[in-house]
Write a structure and sequence with these properties.
Helix content: 25-40%
Bound molecules: zinc ion
CATH topology of the largest domain: Arc Repressor Mutant, subunit A
Low-confidence stretches: none
Shape: globular
Number of domains: 2
Strand content: 15-25%
Order of helices and strands: HHEEEHEHHHHHEEHEHEE
CATH architecture of the largest domain: Orthogonal Bundle
């Protein structure tokens, strides 16, 4: 079933007549065109916020965010709240918890994230771009560049479209925070949330040996997965994207 956020985003794009190259359209212009105000300003402990005032809604995005793809993501997320959540709450404040953890932060955040994802990375264009290409780290990097989006938002979109069986694992300060696994991924069980990242993995290299792999590596499937029947020689690919500022790692695992 298509999420409400996705549907509202598609309707909006149709209404304002954007059918391709959304990366060329400044999100701020769409926001002001829809009747809200937009400003970039330094914010403490938040990436973005929308305040529904008596007359006008005000959207603020943290000017200290250091790359444009993320600014676009936060701005689109706030636009999603504007389009869908008027009258529900007066203020929505967003940080990595609401922007990244799609599954724990409640229905309105999930809707705003789906909305942002569809505005920035429209499904039909992403599918067209990926065509029948298999998965690679390069593909995520190319997509992020083509659509001017953050790596994390891009990887999540790719994952949500089910274009290739993947497992995404998000870790912070050497602990596993959350993960998502394609239904057709060959293994099922990962360690519980808030347990230590396994040492012999690419994410483990970062947290325990301070080594950053900017490519992909082979890891043993049973280093990540705890299924009882894994052949001990079975290997998977792992590639990691890093955020030094938050000591945060996104691992992507795939089979070959
Ligand atoms: Zn939000």
């Amino acid at each position: 079933m298509i999420n409400k956020g996705t549907l509202v985003a598609r309707r909006l794009m149709e209404e304002i007549g954007i059918s391709n190259s959304p990366n060329e359209i400044p999100i701020e212009k769409i926001i002001t065109g829809r009747g809200a105000s937009f400003k970039l300003a330094p914010m403490d402990n938040a990436d973005g916020r929308i305040v529904f005032g008596d007359y006008k809604a005000k959207i603020t995005v943290n000017s200290q965010i250091d790359y444009p793809g993320k600014i676009r993501h936060v701005a689109s997320h706030e636009l999603g709240h504007f389009e869908m959540h008027k009258g529900i709450k007066r203020i929505f404040t967003d940080d990595d918890r609401t922007l990244l953890d799609w599954y724990k932060s409640g229905v309105h955040e999930i809707e705003a994230n789906h909305f942002a994802s569809e505005i920035l990375l429209p499904e039909h264009l992403v599918r067209q771009y990926c065509d029948d290409e298999g998965f690679s780290r390069q593909l995520i990097e190319d997509l992020a560049e083509e659509f001017n989006t953050s790596i994390t938002a891009t990887a999540l979109k790719y994952f949500n479209l089910g274009l290739y069986p993947l497992t995404l694992i998000f870790s912070q300060n050497s602990f596993i925070k959350w993960y998502r696994k394609s239904e057709d991924f060959p293994f099922t069980y990962l360690p519980p949330y808030n347990t230590k990242v396994p040492v012999n993995t690419v994410a483990g290299d970062f947290f325990f040996k301070q080594i950053k792999q900017e490519d992909f590596e082979q890891v043993y499937a049973d280093d990540w997965f705890t299924d009882y029947n894994i052949d001990s020689n079975k290997q998977l690919f792992e590639t990691c994207f890093y955020s030094d500022r938050f000591n945060f790692v996104m691992s992507i695992l795939w089979d070959y």
